[in-house]
Amino acid sequence: MFVALFANALPARAATGVVLPMLIVGDLFAVAAYRQHLVWSHLWRLFPWTVAGVVCGWYALARLDDAWAGRLIGTIVVTMLLVHFWRSRQPSEAPAPAAFPILAAGTGVLAGFCTLVANAAGPVMNIYLLAMRLPKLEFMGTGAVFFLLLNWFKVPFMVNLGLITPASLLLNLWLAPAVILGALAGRRLLGRINQRGFERLTLVLTAAAALKLLVA
Description:
Blueprint: H1 2-9, H2 12-34, H3 40-61, H4 66-88, H5 101-118, H6 121-131, H7 136-160, H8 166-190, H9 195-215
């Protein structure tokens, strides 16, 4: 949701550069809180493909129209939501999606591409991790470490594109206290949400973000 808010407050390309350092600050707090719940197998399965997606996104960002890139990402996320709902109605003994390497490969490439173009890998990863049927703490731990690694990997690409500048970093310094407060509040809130409520909240926010990308 905050990606869409910043894209409305600032030019789309500038917003991408401003948001990334804020994400890294949030990632540091998330990793500190949830790292013990990390499931390494998902990182090994996804990250090599995600690197390829970041490189593709870096190449495309200077060439794609912002509006069309947003619509493309929104369409992808809506499709993944539909796949998730279909999966949730399958028998519980159905094979886990992790059995199909193509799903991890596709998710990794899409996450890398979407995060470089619009910092919008969150919805893609949310659907993948829900499809893996991870409990909420493992969901948070795996996602936190994945995004910390991914966002640091993106920094040189964003600097190369001129999207992280001294002026954008100064704005980040002003906004960092709010990010820290949000991270601490989120940690307290998670303990009050049961697994079913957590999954529903994740899906609702993901759908809202996808629709915003489609109508932007």
